[in-house]
Amino acid sequence: MTALLTDSVQDVAVIDTALRLAVPLRAPLLLVAVLPHARPSVTAEADACAARAVVGRVLPRVRRAGLDHIPVVHRVTPRGTRLRAAGAVLDVAARHLSSVLVAAARGPAGLDAHLLAEASALRCGPFVHTAAPTAWTPSATQQYRPGARDRPTAPTGEA
Q: What does the CA dihedral 37, 42, 46, 48 come to, rounded to 10 degrees?
């Protein structure tokens, strides 16, 4: 089972979907952190720090589920087509013998679930599962009361 993390808000939906599929099977998760193309001046320490930030956002959920995980970093190449970028991600999943890849419906160029599914069909690769987008919910401090002229108020405890 592979979860494609692209350093976006949708990573939470991706990891929740991957956990929902992997927990009943007790399958380990391959966490692929996709990072944008880096300039040659980027050091290995900066690269590792960026990867830890992406994986670190979802790691508490994986640990609470009690699943093993394998973090992997994938850099997007600056040249090539969108299908080639999707194919490179599929190659990472294939190297780890993953049969299911969970990705967000919207992602960076070439890494959304629809294009990954197309590339997977062309290559006879893993099944691509699309994670539904997360719904936006206002925080508790941003509650509105009728007649308050649409200004946020402090939580009142009203339901």
A: 50
Task: Locate the DSSP E strands across the chain.
Answer: 2-5, 29-35, 69-75, 100-104, 127-131
CA of 72: how far to CAs of 24, 107, 118, in Å?
23, 18, 23
- Say if pTM beats, i.e. exceeds, 0.70: yes
Query: Using CB atoms within 10 A of its CB, is residue 106 exposed (0-12), middle (13-18) or buried (19+)?
Result: middle
In whole angstroms, give the CA distance from residue 150 to residue 10. Answer: 29
Task: Assess contact for 2 and 126: CB atoms under 8 A.
Answer: yes
Give per-residue pLDDT as tens, 12-54.
Answer: 889 999 999 999 999 889 999 888 776 666 677 777 788 888 8
